[in-house]
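Q: What does the assembly look like in three dimensions?
Context provided by user:
Components: four
Sequences:
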Amino acid sequence: MDKKNYREKLISTATRLFAERGLNGVSIRELSTAAGVSISMISYYFEGKEGLYSSVLQEQFSCFEYMATIKERDSGPMDKIEEYIRWSIQRHRDYPFLLRYYTSELTNPTRYFSSIVRPTLEKALHILIDIIKTGIDEKLFRGGLNPEDTALAMAGMVNYYFLSTLATEEFINHSPERDEELIRHYMDIFTRGILS
Amino acid sequence: MDKKNYREKLISTATRLFAERGLNGVSIRELSTAAGVSISMISYYFEGKEGLYSSVLQEQFSCFEYMATIKERDSGPMDKIEEYIRWSIQRHRDYPFLLRYYTSELTNPTRYFSSIVRPTLEKALHILIDIIKTGIDEKLFRGGLNPEDTALAMAGMVNYYFLSTLATEEFINHSPERDEELIRHYMDIFTRGILS
DNA sequence: GTCTATATTGCGATAGAC
DNA sequence: GTCTATCGCAATATAGAC
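A: Here is the predicted structure of the complete assembly.
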């Protein structure tokens, strides 16, 4: 990244800036200056600002491919759910900007939502839904469950913990040291509920 | 709103447009045209675009005051949790743009985040956390629960259902007719878990 | 491939007429 | 209170030198 590969330098700078202030909140002037590159390089490599944004989006959402690995894993629904939660939390750690693109595209979709974001999220969610369905078929999970809502509930639990960070960091410790505790805790709530 | 009250007309138009495309995605030119008002009215009433945005934000987040009502209610933790979930879902129905401001401010905070958004969400979350704590004290909920994470899990379940709409509407029915089913279902998952 | 310089458009804000 | 007209600036994109 430091070896004067301007294309990569632009992508990494754009990933941070677009995440922090959105597509319309960053000018290519500022972006190219921050990357230490001439402004014209953006058109040269990406055919303009939007092209750069779509490249960033593509790269950020590529990590969802790992969901296929969970799907193919030779293990039961409970193990797969735990692996999903663990991977999901780790994903937020490894791609600290992904959540911004994720929520920003879901609430203010750009033209790339339908080509990049929706297909990726649909595929991931369908894998989750299938895991829940398998658990119900095997009588491991309750029969009354709606697989779709249940999958959303699980994904929501984990994602919201990170989404809320800025509003809760003063009274909830969000450091990675707590991640294992969080996994245990969310597995517990999700599988057994909160009743004693 | 139609009685030539331009101030209100600007707020309602801005609420929709800022929600759809963000603060930086809408120009005051377009906004004032859509509102059928001269562009100079924005400075006149709100001292500029950002002032208009902050008025919209203030109005959107004012509905969280209802959380105080839940807090004061003379009922047990379980009833309060159900009331929270019911109110939360209804809030998404009544304020369809709120979620956009909510997530946009959490991931790309404007200068109004710390004065308007964070205090509001902090207060609401602390009420939820206290409800969970009461339930634990009364031995109604499990002793091992972390009240903070548990409150976030509950809020996350509900909010994510609406956040995911754009990516899931083709295979999950998000119509209000399902809301009661959703409340029952999320209460079930949250209190009893998914195990049979 | 990379830069500087510039063309063109659209932005937010406001002065001043009514 | 409301409008039109306009100022000054910043936006994206690109032509052309190296």
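Follow-up: Chain A has a mean pLDDT of 97.
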